[in-house]
Amino acid sequence: MKLYYWPKTRAFRALWMLEEMRVPYDLEFVNIRAGAQNETAFNRVNPMCKLPALEDRGACIAESGAVLLYLADRYPETQLGVALDDPARGRFLQWMFFTGSCLEPAMAERITGAQSNTVSFGWGDLGRVEHAIESALEEGP
Ligand SMILES: N[C@@H](CCC(=O)N[C@@H](CS)C(=O)NCC(=O)O)C(=O)O
Q1: For residue 38, which atom of ligand 1 is closest to its CA?
Q2: Of 3, 30, 49, 112, which one has the fewest beta carbons inside 10 Å?
Q3: d(CA 1, CA 54)
Q4: Measured distance CA(119)–CA(4) in Å, rounded
Q5: What tens-digit pLDDT sequence spans the chain (141 residues)?
Q6: What is the pLDDT of residue 140?
Q7: 24: which residues sit within 8 A by CB, 6+ positions away?
């Protein structure tokens, strides 16, 4: 198992997960500040030229949510995921996808001041994202 990594990037999500799981892994540093993500060797791992990326038994996985889910499923004994037949699995997946598909784009939109379109854009806007998170937290931990 190899994690393509650089400090202070989203690859920290995967590193944190691997450490919590206490499973063996190797780190391969990809210096995105020096442009190493654009080199051909890394392009074969992730054509999006982004971290994190994980390599396991010849398969390459990118997108931090997918990497975390892959690890949770690969090591069920670590109990960092939710079992396939558990009714809580749906909510687990919902929040796993939420960061990349709603929270991050809504934050980027707000930070850059880009024009929003709450109906057409999949993330709604930051107000809706905040409302969804607050509603979920009202239900309990
Ligand atoms: N949706 C991706 C985003 C990954 C991403 O943007 N990673 C940044 C570092 S935090 C990166 O590798 N940037 C290098 C580049 O785009 O050239 C994920 O969640 O894995």
Answers
A1: 17
A2: 112
A3: 7
A4: 36
A5: 999 999 999 999 999 999 999 999 999 999 999 999 999 999 999 999 999 999 999 999 999 999 999 999 999 999 999 999 999 999 999 999 999 999 999 999 999 999 999 999 999 999 999 999 999 999 887
A6: 80
A7: 1
Q: CA–CA separation, 141 vs 139, rounded Å?
A: 7
How close is the Cα of 80 to the center of ligand 1, in Å? 23
Q: Is the CB of 37 under 6 A from ligand 1?
A: yes
pLDDT at 127: 97
Cβ atoms within 10 Å of 81's Cβ, excluding its own? 20
* SS3 at position 75: coil
Give yes or no for residue 109 CB within 6 A of ligand 1. Answer: no
Calculate how far, in angstroms, residue 137's C-alpha sits from the geometric centre of ligand 1. 28
- Return the residue whose CA atom lies nearest to atom 1 of ligand 1: 63
Give the type of residue at 12: F
Q: Which residues contact 88 (CB under 8 A, 6 or more apart)?
A: 82
Q: Is 46 in the pocket of ligand 1 (CB under 6 A)?
A: no
